[in-house]
Amino acid sequence: SFPSDEVIRKRLLIDGDGAGDDRRINLLVKSFIKWCNSGSQEEGYSQYQRMLSTLSQCEFSMGKTLLVYDMNLREMENYEKIYKDIENSIAAAHEKISECKKQILQAKRIRKNRQEYDALAKVIQHHPDRHETLKQLEALGKELQNLSHIKENVEDKLELRRKQFHVLLSTIHELQQTLENDEKLSEAEESQETQMEAEAKQ
């Protein structure tokens, strides 16, 4: 984190030359002033060497700062790229999740259909197959046809017995009439004989 203005002010109060680049610049200015006010050639040369050293340090610090700045820019670009990659990954993950949800729903429908098919298959297994059912129907048809013939024969026999019974009743009725007529005729003959006997006695 960067130092606040208050911290910088306190550093300057404690150390008049400041710290870091500020210190180097202040030293350079002081060296330049001393170099301008130098009385001898040796002192001027010494101040000149100090200024060159301070300039070298400032250039090195500036180069270092530029390198750090470039590194920070590259890091920012890298972070942006990573951020975009993360966003793309998140979008792809959402699409994958959506696709997985669709697949889960489809799997649930397939499982439900299979359960229904299994239930139907169990119900179908309890019933005979089509071929067996057709054979049973054919057998039942033949049996029904035989029963129909038997019924017709029984009805014919009943009709014959009814006619025979009717003939028998007619014969009995005729016989009864004949007997009644014979009985009346016998009574009339007896009455006539009785009358003739009575007339003969007179």
UniProtKB/TrEMBL annotation:
Residues 181-202 are annotated as: Disordered. GO terms for biological process: mRNA export from nucleus; mRNA processing. Keywords: Coiled coil, Nucleus. The keyword Nucleotidyltransferase does not apply. It is found in: Nucleus. Transmembrane segments: none annotated. One of its GO terms (cellular component) is THO complex part of transcription export complex. Residues 76-103 form a coiled coil. The keyword Coiled coil applies. Component of the THO subcomplex of the TREX complex which is thought to couple mRNA transcription, processing and nuclear export, and which specifically associates with spliced mRNA and not with unspliced pre-mRNA. Required for efficient export of polyadenylated RNA. Plays a key structural role in the oligomerization of the THO-DDX39B complex. Belongs to the THOC7 family. This is THOC7 protein. It comes from Sinosuthora webbiana. The gene is Thoc7.
